């Protein structure tokens, strides 16, 4: 059952009284609770977000090539950007966590916040359709698009360039852990650059984990 505080918050950020409260409750629920969680809604919301951002970029940058648009898209749908927007709208307070995840600081994790942000978009899409979900994304992502004066590099490309500039060999990525059921597998990837401590990241796909590991490495060492 969704709390009164979470319901009031949803009314504020969505601009209406949610009709399908169960889906929004699920969107806010982490797997550590042992209850139905956000992952299926995240899958859906990720697609809605990606399509909307792609449409926005196509209109905003009519002369840019596909490669540069893809770099912008990757940055805008990244876990870090989704987590930043989640914090801006007050999401962390309303995440439903199991004790261990709460003790581990999952409430402030970019991965968790980003995933739940996408799950909320998925829940909104199911309740009100694409037009309302699209409007929500436009409202909260537009400032980030307008602030992007040049296309950012993908973290893996940026790390490779950083290694070249510092006379280091190409970074090596390795899957160091896989866990979870087949439909919700989590991958831990470790990136190694000679002369530096390895950096790990976890995500729902190998590619996303590699991207996050590269991003964390650059945050730590660049």
TrEMBL record:
<feature type="active site">
    <location>
        <position position="118"/>
    </location>
</feature>
<keyword id="KW-0255">Endonuclease</keyword>
<keyword id="KW-0479">Metal-binding</keyword>
<keyword id="KW-0460">Magnesium</keyword>
<feature type="domain" description="RNase III">
    <location>
        <begin position="7"/>
        <end position="129"/>
    </location>
</feature>
<feature type="binding site">
    <location>
        <position position="42"/>
    </location>
    <ligand>
        <name>Mg(2+)</name>
    </ligand>
</feature>
<keyword id="KW-0819">tRNA processing</keyword>
<keyword id="KW-0694">RNA-binding</keyword>
<dbReference type="Pfam" id="PF14622">
    <property type="entry name" value="Ribonucleas_3_3"/>
</dbReference>
<comment type="similarity">
    <text>Belongs to the ribonuclease III family.</text>
</comment>
<dbReference type="InterPro" id="IPR011907">
    <property type="entry name" value="RNase_III"/>
</dbReference>
<keyword id="KW-0378">Hydrolase</keyword>
<comment type="function">
    <text>Digests double-stranded RNA. Involved in the processing of primary rRNA transcript to yield the immediate precursors to the large and small rRNAs (23S and 16S). Processes some mRNAs, and tRNAs when they are encoded in the rRNA operon. Processes pre-crRNA and tracrRNA of type II CRISPR loci if present in the organism.</text>
</comment>
<feature type="binding site">
    <location>
        <position position="118"/>
    </location>
    <ligand>
        <name>Mg(2+)</name>
    </ligand>
</feature>
<protein>
    <recommendedName>
        <fullName>Ribonuclease 3</fullName>
        <ecNumber>3.1.26.3</ecNumber>
    </recommendedName>
</protein>
<keyword id="KW-0507">mRNA processing</keyword>
<dbReference type="InterPro" id="IPR014720">
    <property type="entry name" value="dsRBD_dom"/>
</dbReference>
<feature type="binding site">
    <location>
        <position position="115"/>
    </location>
    <ligand>
        <name>Mg(2+)</name>
    </ligand>
</feature>
<dbReference type="InterPro" id="IPR000999">
    <property type="entry name" value="RNase_III_dom"/>
</dbReference>
<keyword id="KW-0540">Nuclease</keyword>
<dbReference type="GO" id="GO:0004525">
    <property type="term" value="F:ribonuclease III activity"/>
</dbReference>
<dbReference type="InterPro" id="IPR036389">
    <property type="entry name" value="RNase_III_sf"/>
</dbReference>
<feature type="domain" description="DRBM">
    <location>
        <begin position="154"/>
        <end position="222"/>
    </location>
</feature>
<feature type="active site">
    <location>
        <position position="46"/>
    </location>
</feature>
<dbReference type="Pfam" id="PF00035">
    <property type="entry name" value="dsrm"/>
</dbReference>
<keyword id="KW-0699">rRNA-binding</keyword>
<keyword id="KW-0963">Cytoplasm</keyword>
<comment type="subunit">
    <text>Homodimer.</text>
</comment>
<keyword id="KW-0698">rRNA processing</keyword>
């Amino acid at each position: 059952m969704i709390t009164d505080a979470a319901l009031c918050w949803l009314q504020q950020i969505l601009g209406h009284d949610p009709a399908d409260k169960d889906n929004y409750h699920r969107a806010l629920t982490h797997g550590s609770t042992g209850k139905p969680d956000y992952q299926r809604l995240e899958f859906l919301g990720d697609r809605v977000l990606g399509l909307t951002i792609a449409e926005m970029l196509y209109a905003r940058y009519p002369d840019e090539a596909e490669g540069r648009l893809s770099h912008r898209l990757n940055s805008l749908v990244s876990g870090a950007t989704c987590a930043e927007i989640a914090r801006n709208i007050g999401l962390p307070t309303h995440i439903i966590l199991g004790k261990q995840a709460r003790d581990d600081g999952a409430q402030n994790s970019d991965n968790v916040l980003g995933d739940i942000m996408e799950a909320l978009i998925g829940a909104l899409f199911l309740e009100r359709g694409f037009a309302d979900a699209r409007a929500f994304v436009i409202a909260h992502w537009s400032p980030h698009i307008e602030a992007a004066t040049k296309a950012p590099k993908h973290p893996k490309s940026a790390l490779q360039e950083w290694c070249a500039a510092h006379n280091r060999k190409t970074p090596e990525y390795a899957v160091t852990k896989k866990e979870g059921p087949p439909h919700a597998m989590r991958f831990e990837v470790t990136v190694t650059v000679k002369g530096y401590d390895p950096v790990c990241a976890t995500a729902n796909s190998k590619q996303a984990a590699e991207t996050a590991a590269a991003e964390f490495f650059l945050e730590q060492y660049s």
